[in-house]
Fold each of these.
Amino acid sequence: MVEEEVSSLEEGTVTVIATGPLTSDAMAEFIKNDLGCGNLHFFDAAAPIVDASTINMDVAFFASRYDKGDADYINCTMNKEQYDAFWQALTTAEEAELKEFDKESQKNVKVFEGCMPVEVMAKRGYETLCYGPLKPVGLVDPRVGKESYAVVQLRKENREGTMFNLVGFQTHLTFPEQRRVFRMIPGLENAEFLRYGVMHRNTYLNSPGILDNTYAMNARPDVFFAGQMTGVEGYVESAGSGLLAGINAANRALGKDKLALPAETMLGAMADYVSRGGTGAFAPMNANFGIVTPLGYRVKGGKAAKNEKLAERALSIIDQTLATL
């Protein structure tokens, strides 16, 4: 083991790059320019994502603004009384404490104007949100035949439509506060959050098109990435990406075929997300059942029973894969 800073690597050497969110400037420049990965993302601003099956569609409805294009957005309407309660809760909710490097990042990144936290926007004025992400113009509630006081829109996060994100809801709120306040939105009272909103320093690749589903570079198959740099979010997820990248780096060195796990497994689903992305701009993702290929049939017994079936299917696939190695 050699403990020293690495800022480059030799051509043709099988390598796993597992540098984290605070990558050194020299290594970041090497990844960006020499490896041809382009600009790295230095600030992670992502809105919460909810499980589509937990949205109350007796209250919410699909529609596009002015009925233009496909009705891909789920709309959660508010009357003035509901909006008032939501605004009061949002503007008084507890915010997450920033780390020192996050504070420094915000000095250098125009995050507050380009990607303003929803609670900061709300504090600028009572009706500010109604002219921003909660703008009701052009969205007619089919139940009453008119526009509402405010509308929260949710956009499809993946092609399968199992995950929806709250449009314009980047936030600094703590996770418990996000759950409490955002469940005040009509239709989201029982919403399960697959990912909470985050805003922090997080160096990562724009991985779709750069990495394949084995964490190898498409342009440099001898170079693999692992950990948060790939766009997975969390410790277990980073370890999981490292496991798959390590196996495939070893296979590459030994002249064996790469191992790509199917998206019916969690490791495969994360690798698939990293290599293909969702439906919008690429943002880090944690392990959750929303990114796993759906069963394709209904399961009695609710969410727990469905997740158990997903797990059973995944374990069966892994057993079959191991048997072929």
Amino acid sequence: MDFIKQPMDIENRSMEIIAPHLSGLNLSEAETKVYSRMIHASGDVDYAPLIRLHPYAIAAAQAALQKGCNIYTDVEMVRTGIHKASFNRYGGRIECRVADPAIAVMAKAEGITRSMAAMRSFGRDLAGAIVAIGNAPTALFEVLRLAEEENVLPAVIIGIPVGFVGAADSKKALAENTKVPYITVEGTKGGSPIAAAAVNAIMYLLDNRR
């Protein structure tokens, strides 16, 4: 059986297959690359009309990265999916506290999810950072609360939680917020690989070395 074996050839052919599904969306070159990588990670071209990307999201994320910002994630799967060699060029850290025993204690005491407790524990450290959420709607709701009530403003929120309870509502709230640039996906679709892919796409726009 003949098939493509080289990783970059596979990626390039994937992008060629995705391209026609983006042709009518009036995207910039940078936006096309972010959309393409998110769709590539999902294996689902139906994402194309559902992705919502704030006009300043890419530039805001790139500026934050170049300043050495941290990335805060809701689950380990997002943290694991971010390309470390690319991120390490900028000097920040990728933080996830969902498995921290202290977070479990906090979540139980306050009657909230661990992902929500983790975001609450980061508090003002989220200001100027990239927040990448791929699993927990409660984490996204908490980051939006911090922005609205405490004026804790990340550089960008990549909020793509997946599921049938709270996910669509949290992403709708993100897209309606007026304080923080965002990348999201309408409805129930999403997940950690998609959130990580959005981060990676932005980094590859800055420096495509792998």
Amino acid sequence: MLEQAIDFKDESEALYAVIAPLSTTDWKRESLFKSWTLHDVIGHLHVWNYAADLALHDEGAFGTFIAGAMEALAQPNGMRTFTNEWLDGLTGPALGEAWREFFVPMSERFALADPKQRVKWAGPDMSVRSSITARLMETWTHGQEVYDLFGLERVNGDRIKNICVLGVNTFGWTFANRDLPEPPEAPPVRRHAPSGALWEWKSPSDSNRIEGAAEEFCQVVTQVRNIADTDLQVSGPTAIRWMEIAQCFAGAPEDPPAAGARRRQV
């Protein structure tokens, strides 16, 4: 069984537990992320889960889907428009149920697939393992908008290690994506897991390092928090610059939120 597929399901279930009791009115409340509502968040996760699943089992159908998606996304407010057209009126609690009814069997299909199988995506092809890890990352990332919106303190599990690994692995890409020279060496990273375990990448260094809670590292590389709004200990020019612009997700360069702009609402 592919571990990342199980982690994706568990992360999705954790978010579903938050939204399941909410009212139709709650689904219309706006978050601090581009004024996205709960409807926008779950609709976005649902449509791109569908796309990833399509890429796994029907390459031709995925090609048709992604061509239409890219054409729509090139238009102003294209993401929301495309999502709502695809949902065809599905919204509120019914959308939440449809999302769950899809991600559960989807996770099972990925869990049984060959992790090294190549699948298509909007950008370069990727492995099945990378594809479901990306879905986990996006679920966790957009899920933060929901936790923040309803003033909830998130309780993470060690499955966020997948996002930490993705953050570390996209060090060079963060700079290349902005047409910036890649620093010659990535800084050491030490993170404290939710379970209390210590996760380390490279040997510790006093002059150039990143240390702190794994959750906060994930928040920075997914751009749900500004580095200034965390307690991460960052030292050295390479580490500081990386954390200022870190981006572990695909697409054009995006700037992190301004300090204080993304937070738990009360």
Amino acid sequence: MRFIWAIIVGLFLAAGVLMFRSPDSGPTPPTSSVTAGGSSPSDRISELASASTSPKTDSEAAASQEASSPPGDASAPDESITAMTHVLVDGDTLQSIAGRRYGDERLWRKIVDANPDLAAGRLELGDTIQLPPLESIEIVDPAASLIADLDEGRSARPNTSKVGESVEISPEAPRLDLGLYREILDATVAPGELVRTAKDRIVADGEFTIRGEGTRDSPYRVSWELLASAADTYRPSLGETGIPQRIAALDGAWISIDGYVAFPLGGEAATEILVMLNQWDGCCIGVPPTPYDAIEVALANPVPRSQRHAISFGTLTGRLQVSPYLVESWLVGLYLMDDAEINLEL
């Protein structure tokens, strides 16, 4: 089932590799210069951002610089840039400007981030671009965008697992170290507060109620909001590797959860499925899952073809594993379920 996640994250990995690989490991960033002539501004910025041209000789570059550099912000190609702005002159490249401003030609994309008109092709020779300090340039991270989308979607859904105002937690109620010392690959456990308010009820961090005892006969009743809350502190691509204790406490326990089910294509009987928060058929219907709101499930008993549909909803009960699956630092999968039984409603 891991290949499903590899497909989902493939595009982001490809983008990440192209953005951050070193110059000597593959294709290099654009090196074309802005040139004067009969081309349109869009053609010029296209040349600046993506085309390859023959390098000028030293004498040609010097003559071109002298002829086209306006006074003020423009600086010679071999001089560092300390100003917050720069006038585009013939001979400029994104690489050279980044090297002269930030000391690293590989940061040319940050110049584009700071100048939307540059990427849109609305600049030409003589126009001024912004070169603010590097730390003030907003870095757009695909992983962070995914998490933000997840957070937004989670906040928009009614959360039936939230602790109501009527629930009172006694100071004398036992605090649990459940899950605190679990060893989870590529993660550490971030301590929280788990309070047992009844034999079959635990209140986690004052937010989530976990009902049941975590056994086969009395599994924990788990909400997707609880599972998705792992994103609060576990975002490996951002350097955050703390699994909340409330999540670690579920590792190895028997749980029950409702969700949409995706079956693999073909085969007489399915023994592996994907259960998700949102409806998705594995292709083009619904919302593809994230690692935080999906579980890869190994069934105890196969589901025959006659009971499978493109879109199914049901209840899964099985033993949960909190098992991060990373490709480099990208989180591809997080939850597994073994020995699972399924009760399909649709």
